[in-house]
Amino acid sequence: MRTTTYSLLLSIIFLGLTNVFGANPWIHDHRNRSQTWRLPADADQRNCILRTAFEEAYQCRENDELRKALVLFRKIVGVNDTTWSSQSLWQMALIYEQKHQYMYAVNHLKKILDLYPEYEHFTEVIDRLFQIATKLKSGKRPYYFGLIPGFKDYKSAIDFYQNVIQKAPSLSLAPQALMCIAEIEEFQKRPAKAIEALDQLIDQYPYSELSPEAYLQIARIYESLVVSSEHDQGALHKALNYYEDFAFLFPEHENCPSVHQRIDLLKAALARAKIRMADFYYFFQNNWLAADLLYGKALDIHYSSEIVQEVETKRQRIRQGISAPKCPIDFLFNTHEQDRKNQLWLKSIEAKSHLDFHEIPSFQNMTHKEDSSLSSQEKTADDFLPPFLKDSENPSLQVDLTQIKLTSEF
């Protein structure tokens, strides 16, 4: 019984506060519907009465009598007059924004856009909606009942920005709203959502002044996802692609020099990741063909003097037929088959010595005098490749085995 009484008292207090401070427009709307405002049929008389009521409400707002102003403006809105109702909704939105009741302010702005699309100050309504979203983005707190600060509301900020994009996609505020959404999502540790917003900006507004920044921001986000160049090559490739797109599309941009530096660094990182993967196939898989191919891909990615020297030294060792040092585990398994394939591949290199150093030799025209028992499926060099190298020109090397730390050096 006591619990029921307390609950009833709390409900009465809550309803009283919302009624007093104007925090629940439904209460006022319900009251006003029961008190119909009868206006004359004559258009001139009707317009004169509405003008007088609007001026009275506006004066109350100027005198900081906000509650009384809201009651009068709401009364005018109920008439559904194109001129005065739309202006009253605008004034109510400003009052709610002044009281930090941002949700109510936005609701009234959206009513203007939905009910009165021909409103003469349409651009100002969109701008006000954008400014309210920006306040929430900056961390301003909405107030309950116009008095009690609430929690930061980034979700509502994103929703309000989305309203700007939906209601006015052709205005310059639309790409700005997408950029702000991306900043909020990145701040909230949701990189995929941030990239989605930035991609939308690039696709829908390619000529916006924010488009170059969108390319850079996406590249930075992908780069921030890279923990290790050896294990996160997908993100590294995407970052590199967006940096290269930026350098190609905006060659005169002030950030181009720094972007070219980032491209060079990322290419060097990718090349070294390919070298580490090639080392893995040479040392731990005893697969000379895969190692030689990956060393070549490292040169294709980044042809610097340091990379060239390292790759040529390692490829020369393979071409000389020098096997990687054996470990005790190698002697427990039969490695003769892979050794035979390596020697067969090496002989094909000698037979096809006129080919370019980076090309993969073909075994299709080879006569296998060394081993007459080879099947027709073992007559091409591609059969010695790992499956992921057969299926893709730009294979993903993100495999768990790459976590093995190499201790041997050439």
Topology of this structure?
Elements: H1 2-20, H2 25-34, H3 43-62, H4 66-77, H5 82-98, H6 102-115, H7 122-137, E1 143-144, E2 148-149, H8 154-167, H9 173-187, H10 191-204, H11 211-224, H12 233-249, H13 256-283, H14 288-301, H15 305-319, H16 328-332, H17 336-351, H18 387-391
Antiparallel strand pairs: 1-2
Q: What can you tell me about this protein's structure?
A:
- The protein is mainly α and 410 residues long.
- The chain has a domain at 22-34 and 45-168: Serine Threonine Protein Phosphatase 5, Tetratricopeptide repeat.
- The chain is built from 18 helices and 2 strands.
- It has helices at 2-20, 25-34, 43-62, 66-77, 82-98, 102-115, 122-137, 154-167, 173-187, 191-204, 211-224, 233-249, 256-283, 288-301, 305-319, 328-332, 336-351, 387-391, and strands spanning 143-144, 148-149.
- Strands 1-2 form a two-stranded antiparallel sheet.
- Helix 5 (82-98) packs antiparallel against helix 6 and helix 7 packs antiparallel against helix 8 (154-167).
- Residues 18-35, 354-381 and 391-410 have low confidence and may be disordered.
Structural class: mainly alpha
Share of helical residues: 55-70%
What value does the average pLDDT take?
Answer: 79
Determine the N-to-C terminus distance: 85 Å
Unreliable spans are 18-35, 354-381, 391-410
Inertia-based shape: rod-shaped
What is the CATH architecture annotation of the domain at 22-34 and 45-168? Alpha Horseshoe
Kindly list the characteristics that best describe this protein:
mainly alpha, Serine Threonine Protein Phosphatase 5, Tetratricopeptide repeat
